[in-house]
């Protein structure tokens, strides 16, 4: 009697992982361990925003937790009676002027740092970095004296200059890092074609700097829009004050109009939210590219 032995089953090798994809720790984690912390964080983040909307949209004296019936009386009050229309216009002027000045000067300085070698270049870069550790409050007195001698106190130009000076160091560092990522051979090719340095920069380099310029400009605008200290110290006339100072006037020692304060806060936040909503893609690209050492 012959006994047949069945052949052993072949061992199937596991399929290799797709090329270029590394297995990450959170790929094997249960979904609730990811979504529950994110949900808690989102809840704590959105509650203050809902609270502001609640006070701004519900009628004065109401204690309802739902803004119904909704009213716009608080927005009308702060815009007309409390002068927020004027504050908003002044803030737009300061923000746009700071954006333009910071971008133009940082573009020239960043190009010099990226393309030219000169003595004390490393020391100059170190000085730019160290200037970021100096608080603005420390320089209020000398700045006030300088602007007083220039007859610029109670002028929006003093706030624009102060904001621009404090934005320039970081802006120049970011722009110089972004220019280093542009191949120098592109400019050389433009020179061979008959362009001078300025024309080559305008035609070849400047279009490639759009993400960096948007990042620097938006950062300067948002900082100038939200800054409270310089506008408070250099502007005494109520018709020259900005939105942050206007929000401060809504609070007194005796009482606080929460509805008007919430409406003013929403007015102050809307331009910043709109700016970031439109430029978020360029903002991330600009900051990441400007931070890379070429």
From TrEMBL:
A Pfam family it matches: BPD_transp_1
Composition-biased stretches (Low complexity): 1-11
InterPro entries recorded: BP-dep_ABC_trans_perm, MetI-like, MetI-like_sf
Mitochondrion recorded as keyword: no
GO cellular component: plasma membrane
Domain ABC transmembrane type-1 span(s) in chain numbering: 88-279
Subcellular location as annotated: Cell membrane
Alphabetized CDD domains for the sequence: TM_PBP2
Membrane topology label: Multi-pass membrane protein
Matches recorded under Gene3D superfamilies: MetI-like
Region named Disordered: 1-20
Keyword tags: Cell membrane, Membrane, Transmembrane, Transmembrane helix, Transport
Membrane spanning residue stretches: 32-57, 92-114, 126-147, 159-179, 200-225, 258-279
GO terms classed as biological process: transmembrane transport
SUPFAM superfamilies in the cross-refs: MetI-like (SSF161098)
PANTHER family, alphabetized: INNER MEMBRANE ABC TRANSPORTER PERMEASE PROTEIN YCJP (PTHR32243:SF18), MALTOSE TRANSPORT SYSTEM PERMEASE-RELATED (PTHR32243)
Family, as annotated: Belongs to the binding-protein-dependent transport system permease family.
Protein name listed in UniProt: Carbohydrate ABC transporter permease
């Amino acid at each position: 009697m012959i006994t047949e032995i069945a052949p052993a089953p072949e061992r199937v090798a596991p399929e290799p992982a797709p090329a270029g994809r590394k297995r990450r720790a959170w790929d094997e984690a249960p979904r609730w361990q990811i979504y529950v912390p994110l949900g808690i964080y989102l809840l704590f983040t959105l509650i203050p925003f809902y609270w502001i909307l609640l006070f701004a949209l519900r009628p004065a004296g109401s204690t309802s937790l739902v803004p119904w019936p909704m009213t716009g009386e608080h927005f009308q009050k702060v815009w007309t009676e409390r002068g927020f229309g004027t504050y908003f216009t002044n803030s737009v002027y300061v923000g746009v002027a700071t954006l333009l000045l910071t971008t133009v000067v940082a573009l020239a300085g960043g190009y010099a740092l990226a393309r030219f070698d000169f003595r004390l270049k490393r020391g100059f870069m170190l000085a730019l970095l160290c200037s970021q550790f100096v608080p603005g409050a420390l320089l209020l007195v000398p700045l006030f004296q300088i602007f007083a001698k220039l007859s610029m106190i109670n002028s929006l130009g003093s706030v624009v200059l102060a904001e621009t000076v404090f934005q320039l160091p970081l802006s120049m560092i970011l722009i110089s890092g972004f220019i280093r990522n542009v191949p120098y051979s592109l400019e050389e090719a433009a020179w061979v074609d008959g362009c001078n340095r300025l024309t080559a920069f305008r035609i070849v380099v400047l279009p490639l700097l759009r993400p960096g310029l948007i990042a620097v400009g938006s950062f300067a605008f948002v900082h100038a829009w939200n800054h409270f200290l310089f506008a408070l110290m250099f502007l005494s006339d109520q018709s020259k004050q900005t939105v942050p100072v206007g929000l401060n006037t809504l609070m007194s020692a005796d009482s606080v109009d929460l509805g008007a304060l919430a409406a003013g806060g929403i007015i102050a936040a809307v331009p910043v939210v709109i700016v970031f909503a439109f430029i978020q893609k360029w903002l991330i690209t600009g900051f990441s590219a400007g931070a890379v050492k070429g």
